[in-house]
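chain below, 146 aa
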Amino acid sequence: MKVNLDTNVFLSIKNKEDDHEYCEKIINSIEDKLIDGVLSTIVIIEVLVGFYQNIENDEADRFSSSAVLNFGVIPVNLEIAQKAAQLRAKHNIKLPDAIISASTIISKSEFFITNDKTLLMKLDTKKITPKEFVKNYLENDKNNKS
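prediction:
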């Protein structure tokens, strides 16, 4: 199974938000190669900005290394740009969100995991919250393997 993660999955962990445990389980499952994870370069940029704003350069380096090691990184190319433009025009979403969403479609990811309520309502892709993904897919998989 291939999943594309939104920026807010990583920010939830960094900021210890309410659902950070679910986000950590997803990241751990990707790092353990139980599921395939992909990221748009936009996600990497957005996460790194927070580290650099807080002068957390070591954390930024660790995140970058982990992203490259554990995820398929999807660069913005012409195909992504065209799909992002279509999504932005159709759904009236922000450009970074359109690029990340286009990455989900072009990479043929089965799920786009996000906490963004606007994206959860507007997009045509198969999208899901971290909590729903863990409860419906990760915990079910563990129960089925027992």
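The chain has one domain: 2-140. The two ends are 19 Å apart (CA to CA).
thats it, cya
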